[in-house]
């Protein structure tokens, strides 16, 4: 049974509700300490932001369709990790977003009866963790690495795909947005974008349209081995 089929049953409405957000709205914050709800992204893109050592918000991940928010509430022993004290983050909508707010036990009960959903959930989480891990690994590396990887992550999520591997970014993906997502300085990010434009990775500077195949080749030539899964 799909989530859409689950939501269509009227009596289930006591366990879930649909929430709609406009761009730049805060959809979730760990400081609210919501312990009985899990949020399932039905439609749209969201940005995960956390606080760095200087107390500034930094962007760490893009959430898309079928992503889960407040995933940590599914832990069996929540006393082992005091997550709000360990790390604080918030989730902000990048565009119009539809999210299902579900009772945690209700959500788990439907995963139990369909192991395939468990598998898809774990697959999604593992992929997310791998992306975050690589971004963290590159956080102290050269700006060229960080910007290229940030562009690849954005192109595979919020980028609008065209024929021939061409990707156009939505308006909110500005050079400032890219620098924040790459955790790099704005001036250095602009320099890297200019270099990628000269190499033919970017087809347009102002509209930020790129050739994803050329970007991938650039990434591989920079720091990925021939055995990469990309």
Number of domains: 2
Low-confidence stretches: none
Alpha-carbon Rg, integer: 19 Å
Can you tell me the CATH superfamily of the largest domain?
Jelly Rolls
Largest sheet: 4 strands, antiparallel
What is the averaged pLDDT score?
A: 82
Strand order, largest beta sheet? 1-8-3-6
Summarize the topology.
Blueprint: H1 3-7, E1 16-21, E2 26-29, E3 37-43, E4 46-51, E5 57-63, E6 68-69, H2 83-86, E7 89-93, E8 97-103, H3 104-112, H4 115-138, H5 143-155, E9 160-161, E10 166-168, H6 175-182, H7 186-198, E11 202-204, E12 209-211, H8 212-222
Helix pairs in contact: 5-6, 5-7, 5-8, 6-7
Protein name: Cyclic nucleotide-binding domain-containing protein
InterPro entries: cNMP-bd_dom_sf, RmlC-like_jellyroll
Keywords: Activator
Compact overview of the structure:
It comes from Listeria kieliensis. Helix content is 38%, strand content 24%. The protein is of the alpha+beta class and 230 residues long.
Notes on the protein architecture:
- By secondary structure, the protein is of the alpha+beta class.
- The chain folds into 2 domains: 3-138, Jelly Rolls (Sandwich); 143-222, Sandwich (Jelly Rolls), CATH 2.60.120.10.
- The chain contains 8 helices and 12 strands.
- The protein has helices spanning 3-7, 83-86, 104-112, 115-138, 143-155, 175-182, 186-198, 212-222, and strands at 16-21, 26-29, 37-43, 46-51, 57-63, 68-69, 89-93, 97-103, 160-161, 166-168, 202-204, 209-211.
- The strands form 3 sheets. The chain has a 4-stranded antiparallel sheet with strand order 1-8-3-6. A 4-stranded antiparallel sheet has the order 2-7-4-5.
- A hairpin with a 4-residue loop joins strand 9 and strand 10.
- The longest helix has 24 residues, at 115-138.
- It is elongated, with a radius of gyration of 19 Å.
- The mean pLDDT is 82.
- Keywords: Activator.
- It comes from Listeria kieliensis.
- This is Cyclic nucleotide-binding domain-containing protein.
